[in-house]
Write a structure and sequence with these properties.
- This protein is α+β, with helices and mostly antiparallel strands.
- Helices cover 55% and strands 21% of the residues.
- It folds into four domains: 44 residues, no CATH class; 106 residues, Tetrahydropterin Synthase, Chain A (2-Layer Sandwich), CATH 3.30.479; 55 residues; 38 residues, no CATH class.
- It has a three-stranded antiparallel sheet with strand order 3-2-5, covered by helices on one side.
- The radius of gyration is 58 Å and the shape is rod-shaped.
- It starts with a helix and ends in an 8-residue tail after the last helix.
Length: 292
């Protein structure tokens, strides 16, 4: 009985020791085997791996591509027009041994803080060498590549590999933004005033042209009317002259009737004439002609 118990205890100890000496490396991870705090082995291939039980310690790190938000960051381009930039970096742990030596037990959190400092410094340096128009333009791939290339060397000292850097947002600071909007509003108002002034000037020209055209048309019409009236008067006089030449007595009779019609109209007007006045020749005549 004692031997069976001892055998069970030994078996249990062996199983425990065996399990303690085996660990599994996930395909998404990298593992370090530490012995008294020092790296004694690196396991990057997925599967089973072995270590000394109770002596070695296993630390795993994510082998996938990680992302880190960087921002908001205020930069000053070469034209001294301050901008606020938001960026992010995509990176992975390339050298897990160097990574452990650089950050110790701080792990990924400490590495991200150091990466923030690297990216901020490199972003300020690169964007400080170009104009704000280059930063605000849609073609910023060259700037992002320069930031990535500048940060790669420093990131390698941490055992990191920077895969990509992106500028997400580039805006003016709030105070500058309000000043810029005010300046843009003033420029648009000035342009609107210029357009209104040009429109008023054009309207004045159109009105002046219309007035001049009106005067010219009226003058032409009056001149043509005078010509037509003169021609008509001349034709009338010719007709009267011809008629008078054909029958002077009838023409004189017609003129007398016309004079009677104009003189003897209703109203309060009155005429004082002598009874033997020539004006009444046709009224005194018994046969409708003038007495001779």
């Amino acid at each position: 009985m004692n031997r069976s118990l001892i055998s069970l205890i030994l078996l249990a100890v062996l199983v425990f020791v065996g399990l303690s000496s085996v660990f599994i490396v996930d395909e998404r991870e990298k593992a370090l085997v530490l012995r008294f705090g020092k790296v004694v082995a690196v396991r990057e291939e997925p599967g089973l791996a072995f270590k000394l039980p109770f002596v070695d310690n296993v630390v795993t790190y994510d082998d996938r591509i990680l992302s880190r938000e960087i921002g908001p960051l205020e930069v000053t381009p070469e034209d001294d027009r301050r901008l606020v930039v938001d960026a992010f970096a995509r990176f992975r742990i390339a050298d897990v041994r160097k990574f452990r030596q650089a950050v110790g037990s701080g792990g990924v959190a400490l590495a991200e803080n150091r990466l923030d400092s690297i990216m901020r410094a490199e972003t300020r340096q690169v964007l400080g060498q170009v104009s704000s128009n280059d930063i605000l333009s849609s073609d910023r791939a060259t700037l992002m590549l320069r930031i990535r290339n500048g940060a790669i060397v420093q990131a390698r000292q941490l055992g990191l590999e920077i895969i990509d850097v992106r500028l997400k947002r580039t805006d003016l600071p709030q105070a500058n933004l309000e000043a810029t909007f005010a300046r843009m509003r003033a420029e648009r108002e000035r342009e609107a005033a210029d357009e209104i002034a040009r429109g008023d000037e054009a309207a004045q020209r159109v009105r002046a042209q219309a007035d001049r055209t009106e005067v010219e048309l009226v003058s032409d019409a009056e001149r043509e009317a005078e010509v037509i009236r003169g021609e008509a008067d001349a034709e009338r006089n010719n007709i009267f002259a011809e008629a008078y030449g054909r029958d002077p007595e009838f023409f004189e009779f017609y003129r007398s009737l016309t004079a009677y019609g104009r003189a003897l109209q209703g109203g309060n007007s009155s005429m004082v004439l002598s009874p033997d006045s020539e004006f009444f020749n046709y009224l005194k005549s018994s046969h409708g002609g003038a007495d001779k």
